[in-house]
Amino acid sequence: MSDMIVDHKALFETMPIPRFLVCPDEGGGFSVREINHRGLEYFNRKEDQIVGFHIGQLMDSENARHFEQAFEVCIRQKVPVSIHALPSFPGGLRVYGFWINPLLDFSGKVVLLDVMAQPDSSDDSVLQRERDDAISLLTSIFDASNVGIIVTDRNRRIVRVNDSFVRVYGWLREQVVGEDFTVLLSPDEQGTAIENYERYLKSSIRSSGEMKMMKKDGSIVNTLYTTATLELSQRRKFQVTTLMDITLRKQMEMSLRVAKDQADAANHAKSAFLANMSHELRTPLNAIIGFSEIMMNGTFGKLENPKYQEYMGDVHSSACHLLEIINEVLDMSKIESGRVELDEHNVNLIEVIDSVVRMMASRAFSANIALDMKVPMDLPDIQGDPRLIRQILINLVSNAVKFSDVGGKIILSAELLTNGEIEINVSDNGVGIPKEKIAYALEPFGQIHDASIAHRDSTAGTGLGLPLAKAMIEMHGGYLVLKSEIGVGTTVSVRIPRQRVLRRVETAPTF
Predict the structure, then answer these.
(1) pTM for this predicted structure
(2) What DSSP assignment string belongs to 204-257?
């Protein structure tokens, strides 16, 4: 413990600035308890002429009052305070001001005030040390930076480069220092760079952009630069420029641009192919479907052989299936290319849902699947394209039939939500979709190939039913959500935004 006291005393005494401890007196005065060697120099007194004396006895009344007011604030608020240097000082030691720190006991009472001088800012040795520290810090940052840095003067001469510049661009310092910075630029960049340089120096604005630079080996690299004007003493101006090599990024951008152009060309080719397929395939298919129906109905005479009747039924169903696939592909192509525009009308959702249920009832019945409709009679109308709304529901119900077990049940329901939106749900208790494959099922041609449903012949198709429904409802500003669980079933929800919901007009009763 005594060693600690000795160390404290030694530190207090050897401090290079005046420092003394002041004790608040019971009568409200302040007396000096302890003072170091530099403090004695400041007051120009011996220790026995200071320790134990009231602060007012050590200086004139004006300066004493200046100190006492600061002491009182420090004691009252129990926080450090500072005061400026005195207008006059007894000794020959000049200080800038004083810090006053309260020392508290365990009960929180201020028992001592630690008064420590602030060095005079005119002390050249202190300023020099601060300048040296600042220069050392800036030099370390300059050399340690991972980006290239060039410093140029008002005549465009390079005065300094950092290590990263040397490492990245291959130039040695002695090869570029003192040279016009334009020697580092590609010839087509030099004229613009000189004009910009003069403008940046005059306006002192910060700027950034891209430019082409030459490496020592003659290769051209793309760089991202940031430049700022630095003004030092005697109005000397310098330009500090940071450089980042972005050649690889530019190459990637070019590759992406080429890939995009190729993709656009392929997309145009696909659209042209689909347009041709529309004419070349749908026309003969319609003929096949029409003639097969005539033969199946026996319009010009019955087919006597039962095998021929069976084959004709297969021809008709295959042609209808193929035409359905072609129509789905064409619809998706038109939507993706933005060639589908909404033909908007007032849509009675109750009538549309009822017509879809009646249309799909035979398909569900043939698969031994129950199809129910749960729609409130006061469901509002909406503003939209009735053809697309009907197609959305047909696709969802058709998909539910495909993936439902024999004896299963499908429910098509709708309701007006409290937020003003209308939600239409198509729920089934079929095989379901694995959670990790739900997102894939909503992508074009995203058919789910799972062992649990691999045996189902009815699942054959293009994989466009759900994506088409999703794209069509999004054209209306709505969205589609698919929830599914293996062995439990699937629910597809379609949300129609509130701005498309038409408010019902209440009619006054007639008497």
Answers:
(1) 0.46
(2) T--EEEEEEEE-TTS-EEEEEEEEEEEE-GGG-EEEEEEEEE-HHHHHHHHHHH
